[in-house]
Known about the structure:
The complex is a heterodimer of chains A (279) and B (329).
Chain A: H1 5-34, H2 37-40, H3 55-62, H4 64-97, H5 103-115, H6 122-131, H7 138-163, H8 166-174, H9 179-208, H10 211-216, H11 225-238, H12 243-267
Helix pairs in contact in A: 1-12, 3-12, 4-7, 4-9, 5-7, 7-9, 8-9, 9-12, 11-12
Chain B: H1 41-67, E1 70-71, H2 74-77, E2 83-84, H3 88-94, H4 97-130, H5 133-148, H6 151-161, H7 168-175, H8 190-218, H9 222-230, H10 235-263, H11 267-274, H12 279-282, H13 285-295, H14 299-328
Antiparallel strand pairs in B: 1-2
Helix pairs in contact in B: 1-14, 4-8, 4-10, 5-8, 6-11, 8-10, 10-14, 13-14
Amino acid sequence: MRRSRTSRVLLSVLALAVSAVWAFPVYWMLNSAFLPNVVLQSTTPTFLPFGGSFDNFGVVAGDPAFGRALGVSLVVTLTTVVAALAVAFLGALAVSRFRFRGRTSFVLALLLIQMLPAEGLFIAQYKMMSSLGLLNRSLGLAVLYTAAVVPFTIWMLRGFVAGVPADLEEAAMVDGLSRTQAFLRITFPLLAPGLVASGVYAFLQAWNEFTVALVVMTEEQSRTLPLWLRGFVQASASRETDWGQVMAASTLVALPVIVFFLVVQGRMSSGLVGGAVKG
Amino acid sequence: MTSRTTAPSSPATAPVPPVPPVPSATPARRKGRGSRPGGRLPLLLVLPTLVLLVAALGYPVAWQLVTSLRKFGLKQQFGAPPEWVGLDNYVALVTDPALWAVVLRSVVFCLVTAFVTVAVGGGIAVLMNALGRGVRLVLQVSLLLAWAMPVVAAMTVWIWIVDWRRGLLNWLLVHLGVDGAAGHNWLAEPLSFFVVASTIVVWMSVPFVALSIYAGLTQVGTEVVEASMLDGAGGWQRLRYIYAPLVAPVLSIVLLLQLIWDLRVFTQIKLLQDAGSVANETNLLGTYVYQLGTGKGDFGTASAVSVLMLLLTVALSWRYVRSLMAQEN
């Protein structure tokens, strides 16, 4: 497409302005996290973190509440990832490798369930957890999270399982492997990228989730990281806040997510089996 | 979970929403071979999923349906079993102006936010399509950064930006010469509260929308575009007659998802309320149910609202789910 030079330059300038708007809050978080409270309290904002330090991170990470919340979040998230992958993997196998009665309704139900809002269920889930004695327990929250992510995880994995041609497995069986061996040695390794991608999806959901955790984890000791962050927001309503520390806390929660997200974005779609089967 | 996310979470709820239904990179499954009837094995494979979903989601839904027909009042707080009241909770809701205020607020918030999101996202997608590689990459990376931010972390930053004491927003407005911006609390008034909330939700949701629509735009073949240029179509005409019809399916799905997600927005509203506003005047459906259930212990009414919310979501999602199913088969 031919365009005049001025319009090209104008478009680029516009694009950079848009980029700045979208990246700015992330930058502002990092910038404020490095600045001491004395600087943040001045009436003129400081736009560059010169003379900043890691002090805020030290203070926040040294707080026992952070350690506790990190522990709860890690346990809940890892349990969710492992359980969701195990359950969803079996479901995805069934959906993409077999034609069985009720298959279509099963997939339809998954897709619909996947759309259900946590806000339409949390009161009942609270009552259920409370009558099972699972309130404030990592296990209870992990079960709710697993159920919430499994439908979409199946949907995601199904594509990857379908992408590994059954012909490959059958060829290996012709070469003398049993069905189980063929599956374990041929199909499973090819599925690794799919499992990683779905695992990251489950991780991000569980790590970031706020709504259900807010309802089910009512005690201070059982807070997850997002609930711990909320504590800072609540405190800011009634008294002067050290925003540098709040931003350092947010950075600690956000950093693993951003790294994971950027790494996985590029890798998810690469086709692994493109050349394995001809024609 | 989308959300539940938050949504993929919805951007409204989840930071990583389901991938848009742009055709996936996986090769089409070959018919016949590869799909076996398999007897009982497939049923065994879906069993764990079924058990889990029935226990953690099916049971709560059923409980809500039952509970929405019962009354939890003062007596029940002292241990009396809840009475059966039939559809009374629903009748009370439908005739309750407080609920209608919340519904109206939620619908307006949802419509405005979703349409602004899709308009801005679509604009950015068109812009991306017209850019050179280098600048486009910069734009994509900053969109991804914003998309990757966990909702609660993003909320703390925004609350710090709009903070009335030393936030950046008021400083900027004062420097632009806006009277009365110094020390103004934007979260105190419902209208400015919702403008702030909507801005934040738009900021969170636009990356997904822009990147999905951009993906749709790149599917438009260069031959078509070149042919139209030979025929003398200008930039606007190309956009109107070539791109728009070809991108329409992606556009409508993205808009639908935004509507669904923005209707149930919870985290952003809850946290802005926590940061200091009057909850009663700023409640949307999600926070209203939360208040009814956890604050007042009125499980009957809370369940009735939840059931209405679920029905609304299913009705809205139906088209989206059907279009996903169409690709599946």
